[in-house]
Design a protein that fits this description.
about 350 residues; globular; alpha/beta; 13 strands; seven-stranded parallel sheet
Length: about 350
């Protein structure tokens, strides 16, 4: 299906590029579908592999060291990032990348795959970023710039039903839903471990609710492993008791082992989609989490995980008592529906339809 793009120039665009992240992996997966496409990012962080990436002028300024300070100028950057005029532009957007304008929209087709409209602009209550009342006016101005800046986009895709609904509510645009690719084949190959601990995986930041995971494990009287890294590490270590073990920046191989050895993945966050819960299910590990956002699409309650509307750790701990009712083989089969092949098929169909 990629033949429609074979003779067309294509640019694939992303926000800032970090070493590890779900959105970065999706950006690379899109780029790999179109090998001749040029790859553009605001800037690449020092520990990221920036080979083949074209950075904007923002990368040469001190603002590239602070996302918060760079945020207000990002719409401007994407309009002054150079003058390429490809036939097709595909943006991978969770902030303002969807506003990129390479070439005249009358000749260049602009498509945008959206991980979420910027949370700190549109939904600061989700994770606290941008929720300060003093930021109300700047946030309103950024909302106008964000909605106006995407008027030229010909087609939107959302990574989940949750995000599709936000696109409709905030930008007044429709989008097709294409779930992001998850390497279910890789995470499904590790042999089962002892299944004697609970697991939390991700960036250690407030909205991921690692603090609540610690409380759940303490309430349940079970060991907890927290795998990841982030600015909340010090506060989490102060909160954690002897039942909590930290695995800082585990390798991909180690992460696969952790999934396969866990009794359950704790995921009490309101996430846009959530790749981590799918990786866990690929390893046959059930998810115990919040019945909101992406988990409503990736977890089958009572079959591949246990969900609750409550954020009370006692409620989550009680759910753990029902893990024995779940079939790990069924959990693995469910996760197979989120693999790379399905993403590639749906993505290329959307791109070709939009370009055609």
């Amino acid at each position: 299906m990629a033949d429609l793009l074979a003779d067309r120039s294509v640019a694939v665009v992303h926000e800032w590029f970090s070493a590890v992240g779900g959105s970065e992996n999706v950006f690379l997966a899109i780029a790999e579908l179109i090998p001749h496409a040029t790859r553009h990012v605001l800037w690449a962080e020092p520990d990221a592999d920036s080979a083949g990436l074209r950075e904007t002028w923002l990368a040469r300024t001190p603002l590239s060291r602070s996302k918060a300070l760079a945020l207000p100028v990002m719409p401007l950057v994407w309009r002054t990032a150079g003058r390429p005029s490809p036939d097709v532009v595909i943006s991978s957007s969770h902030a303002f990348a969807h506003t990129v304008k390479f070439g005249d929209p009358a000749q260049t087709r602009h498509l945008s795959y959206v991980h979420t409209p910027a949370r700190y602009v549109w939904s600061p209550g989700f994770d606290g970023r941008g929720a300060n009342p003093l930021l109300a006016l700047p946030r309103a101005l950024l909302q106008r710039a964000d909605r106006w800046g995407g008027r030229h986009v010909h087609a939107y895709a959302a990574n989940s039903v949750e995000v599709r609904d936000r696109i409709r509510r905030f930008w007044h645009r429709d989008a097709v839903v294409i779930n992001p690719p998850v390497d279910v084949e890789y995470f499904g190959t590790a042999p089962d471990g002892d299944r004697d601990y609970l697991l939390g995986v991700g960036r250690w930041i407030p909205y991921k609710r690692f603090d609540l995971m610690i409380e759940v494990a303490a309430e349940a009287g079970m060991p907890l492993v927290l795998a990841g890294a982030g600015p909340d590490e010090a506060s989490l270590r102060r909160q954690a008791g002897r039942h909590v073990r930290f695995e800082v920046r585990p390798s991909r191989e180690r992460l696969r082992e952790l999934y396969a050895g866990a009794a359950a993945l704790l995921f009490p966050a309101h996430e846009d989609f959530g790749i981590v819960p799918v990786e866990a299910q690929a390893a046959g590990t059930p998810v115990v989490g919040l019945a909101r956002g992406g988990l409503l699409e990736t977890v089958v309650p009572g079959e591949t995980g246990l969900l609750t509307e409550s954020t009370d750790p006692r409620v989550h701990a009680r759910l753990l008592g029902r893990l024995g009712d779940l079939d790990r083989a069924l959990i693995r089969r469910h996760a197979e529906g989120f693999g790379h092949a399905r993403f590639a098929e749906h993505m290329m169909r959307w791109i070709n339809d939009a370009v055609r």
